[in-house]
Amino acid sequence: MVIIFYRIPSDSPNVRKVAIMLAETGLPCTVQTVPKRDGERAADELLRVSPNGTVPAIVDQETGATLFESGAILYYLATKSGKLLPADLAARGEVMKWLMFEVANMGPAMSELYHYLLSDTADEAVMGRYRRKLAQFCAILDRQLAGREYLCGECSIADIAIFPWSAIIEFMAEISLDDYPNLKVWVDVMNRRRAICGEARQGV
Length: 204
Hints:
The protein is an alpha+beta fold and 204 residues long.
């Protein structure tokens, strides 16, 4: 049994990654919500699992493992389930480099842009910089997806990591996926996966 910690609302891309992964693998899970304020009991429980107080975080009751950071959680769940991560070393390396691309580039850029969108002192020059970076990332993904249904041939944790950001990039970054046809098709393919369609029914 995997316990996943999240905050309400639970639709942040990082939380969605783990929700999708649990739905894809079929691993049994329960959900524990935590408040935003520090000092409350649930927040203290989260800090024992995630020292930075960030969500998602998980506890695997079968192994005793505790994990935070969505990329690490995806890798752990893939290894535990034997799904969405190739056994072949070269193929696994291909998946891992695209997972790291999301962790190091796309996720942080989208998070920073979101911060400035909510700020009362939003700097248009700064937001423009992040939008340009995200457009560059879209172009990279579009090239990688040329002639492929998924980023690395078959669906993997790399697709699961990148999808939740790509699904909202038009709204957040004012980027049209029409300019990136391979990426647009991939988003549609991911949206049709049963785990993503049924994600809400997992309780996450």
